[in-house]
Write a structure and sequence with these properties.
Blueprint lengths: L4 E7 L3 E7 L5 E8 L11 E2 L1 H19 L6 E8 L4 E5 L9 E2 L7 H9 L3 H8 L8 H11 L13 H6 L3 E5 H10 L3 E3 H4 L5 E2 L4 E2 L1 H6 L9 E3 L22 E6 H8 L8 E5 L3 E8 L10 E6 L7 E8 L3 H9 L8 H7 L8 E3 L17 E3 L7 H27 L5 E5 L6 H11 L2 E5 L4 H14 L5 H7 L2 E5 L5 H18 L9
Helix pairs in contact: 9-14, 10-12, 11-12, 12-13
């Protein structure tokens, strides 16, 4: 056992990482590569699927070199991915017909509003557990089929995309499906990713014919749905391919479900929050798909081979880490590591509140036309105040979701497990504890997204025998306890809600 490992491909919004884990859940190899963010128009966000695939191959090779490992030492590969991001490709050539439409992309907001006006929101929510929003895959694949007609498909001339889809020549999938297809040749997704498409019935556990018809997606385009940890495996890599070995691809989870799995949230009521480009707060609700009355999503958490699906409640916050990236973009900071020092250098935000609704607001507001807003500035406002307000916005948005989560689940949280790049920032973790008024537990291995997909793959092939082994691996690095008086936290949160109100329903056609 000591000389074999499990690898995880973590394909995220800004880049692709490959990590290798040993039996203790420790990282033994690591490589990362960024990819281009493409913004064709305001509110549109795209990625180049071929760039992502090339980067994936590169980081796998680089990661193995980093650890001094050979591909033969990998017992299995797991995949975790940015969810909802959607690709359509030619089944014969394997070439995309258009760039991937990223989960942040808002170009289908008008289509979503048509659905809302047709009074179909509840109908969709009952089937999928999702809010009808441009965030999810259904309107994205519909847009590609309607608008990519003049894009070359890898053949000699442009073809009518929708006709080709109807005739079974095109495939669609989220990023996990794209990677599994390129790694194994098989068109497969897992239940967690399927549940994010707005085309999958999470109670019947099958693609929904009525939803496929609503969004004009031929059934022949959608992938086979498998457990997140699959003893049958999704296939193997090609011995003659880039890896030079046959390695089973045996686990896949959408990134937030992977973090839930990696944080060992296997029991009803276990909760975690992942801080990445956005932040995603999930609570395991067991075998019950709990409907939300407070703007949360009901989603599939994970499924192991031969076991029932485990459901989760989710609060999706679109912009958190991306707000810190924006500070860099506008040159208010040179490096994200500066934010804690700058924030500490002032006693408060001096009344400044920043609502980072760059791509609308997710849970619990669900306003695709909300836009980024800074309120409360005076002539005395300095960059330190704006930086502090940016960090506070992450904490406020998380409290919005935490309160909704408690109301829907009836479970009062005493501790929240956190992960993702931003949790390395002690200032942010303490601020989060103060604003939510609960303990924040940061694990020693904070790349829990990659770890979760490795766990899923490793369990499938017997590298780990039971989830108890995974629980034993989980260790706290640091716990943050509230230092702020609850009354002060409540007042700040109330003022935040006023700032949110000013960001709502801002974007209109033409940007006016």
């Amino acid at each position: 056992m000591s000389d074999t490992y499990v690898g995880a491909i973590d394909q995220g919004t800004t880049g692709t990482r490959f990590m290798v884990f040993d039996h203790d859940g420790s990282v033994v190899a690591n490589a990362y590569e960024k990819h281009e963010q493409i913004y064709p128009e305001p509110g549109w966000v795209e990625h180049d699927p071929m760039e992502i695939w090339e980067n994936t191959k590169q980081v796998v090779k680089d990661g193995l070199a980093d650890g001094g490992l050979s591909p033969d030492q990998l017992d299995a590969l797991g995949i975790t991915n940015q969810r909802e991001t959607t690709i359509v490709w030619d089944a014969e050539t394997g070439k995309p017909v258009h760039n991937a439409l990223v989960w942040q992309d808002r170009r289908t907001t008008d289509r979503v509003e048509e659905i809302q006006e047709a009074d179909k929101v509840e109908w969709i929510r009952e089937k999928t557990g999702l809010e009808c929003d441009a965030y999810f895959s259904a309107t994205k694949v519909e847009w590609i089929l309607d608008n990519a007609d003049q894009i070359k498909t890898g053949r000699a001339r442009p073809e009518d995309i929708r006709d080709r889809a109807e005739s079974g020549e095109l495939l669609m999938g989220t990023i996990d499906t794209w990677l599994i297809y390129n790694l194994t040749g098989n068109h497969i997704t897992d239940v967690s990713n399927a549940s994010r498409t707005m085309l999958y019935n999470i109670r019947e556990l099958e693609w929904d014919d009525e939803l496929l018809e609503e969004f004009s997606v031929p059934r022949s385009m959608v992938p086979e749905v498998r457990p997140s940890s699959d003893e049958k495996t999704y296939g193997t890599t090609d011995a003659d391919g880039f890896l030079g070995a046959e390695v089973p691809v045996a686990g896949a989870l959408g990134d937030q479900q992977a973090a839930l799995f990696g944080q060992t949230c296997f029991d009803t009521g276990d909760a975690k929050n992942t801080y990445g480009t956005g932040s995603f707060f999930l609570m395991n609700t067991g075998e019950e798909a709990v409907a939300s009355d407070h703007g949360l999503l009901t989603t599939i958490g994970f499924q192991r081979s031969g076991e029932p699906v485990q459901y989760a409640l989710e609060g999706s916050i679109f912009i958190t880490g991306a707000a810190i990236e924006w500070l860099e973009d506008v040159e208010l900071i040179d490096d994200p590591a500066e934010t804690a020092e700058l924030a500490r250098s002032v006693d408060s935000t001096d009344g400044v509140y920043f609502v980072p609704a760059f791509t609308g607001l997710g849970a619990p507001h669900w306003d695709g036309r909300a836009r980024g807003t800074i309120v409360g500035m005076t002539r005395g406002t300095r960059r330190e105040h704006i930086v502090r307000a940016t960090l506070e916005s992450i904490a406020f948005q998380t409290r919005d979701v935490a309160e909704a989560m408690e109301a829907d689940s009836g479970v009062e949280m005493t501790s929240l497990k956190v992960d993702g790049g931003a949790v390395k920032n002690n200032y942010l973790c303490q601020l989060q504890s103060d604003i939510i008024q609960t303990d924040i537990a940061r694990p020693k291995v904070d790349e829990t997204t990659a770890l979760g997909s490795a766990y899923a793959a490793g369990l499938a092939v017997g590298y780990w025998e039971t989830v108890d082994e995974l629980r034993d691996n989980w260790q706290v690095d640091k716990t943050f306890k509230p230092k702020m008086a609850s009354g002060d936290a409540d007042k700040k949160q109330a003022r935040w809600e006023e700032a949110v109100d000013r960001s709502l329903d801002w974007a209109r056609d033409g940007g006016d």
